[in-house]
Amino acid sequence: MRYVVQDGDTYQRIAAKLYGAWEIYMLIKEYNLFRALSPGMILEIPTPRTAEVTHIVGAGQKPGFHDLSRSYYQVEHFAELLKSANPNVIPREGVRVRIPALVPEATYRAAQRLYKDLMGIAA
């Protein structure tokens, strides 16, 4: 999805508008290489993880939390979230790692419907 930056937008406001959760604004900011916002610029908006999954570290896999963040969230920023969701876990072959959702599915879908309605975009 693409988003055209409006006057007064911040990454937090865009995340609140599109995800229903301002707290995950770093998903958009890091995905767009931390670019400064200006009205009219076009941002790529990644789809947030909306369901929790369990990852089992495979043989030969890069098991670090930064690598897992990049794999599951598309950016490295959420490595600390993974660490806090997996206390006392060291990701290595055969270990289960909890990958939490960034935003609940219902919250994300509601934000998307509201945004599309406000913008007059067909669902």
List keywords for this structure.
123 residues; alpha+beta; Membrane-bound Lytic Murein Transglycosylase D, Chain A; two-stranded antiparallel sheet; 5 helices; 4 strands; elongated
Helix content: 25-40%
The oligomeric state of the chains shown is single chain
Task: Determine the structural class based on helices, strands and strand pairing.
Answer: alpha+beta
- The fraction of residues in strands falls at 5-15%
| Rough outline | elongated
Q: What's the gyration radius in Å? A: 16 Å
Largest sheet, in brief, is:
2 strands, antiparallel
- How many DSSP H or I helices? 5
Extended strand count: 4
Strand order of the largest sheet: 1-2
Question: How many domains make up the 3D coordinates?
Answer: 2
Could you tell me how far the N terminus lies from the C terminus, measured between alpha carbons in angstroms? 13 Å
Query: Uncertain segments of ≥5 residues (pLDDT<50)?
Result: none
How do the helices and strands follow one another from N- to C-terminus? EHHEEHHEH
Mean pLDDT: 94
Provide a descriptive summary of the structure in words.
By secondary structure, the chain is an alpha+beta fold. The strands form 2 sheets. It has a two-stranded antiparallel sheet. Strands 3-4 form a two-stranded antiparallel ribbon. It has helices at residues 11-19, 25-31, 65-73, 79-85, 105-119; strands at 2-4, 42-44, 53-56, 96-99. The protein starts with a strand and ends with a helix. It folds into 2 domains: 2-47 and 104-119, no CATH class; 53-99, Membrane-bound Lytic Murein Transglycosylase D, Chain A (Roll), CATH 3.10.350.
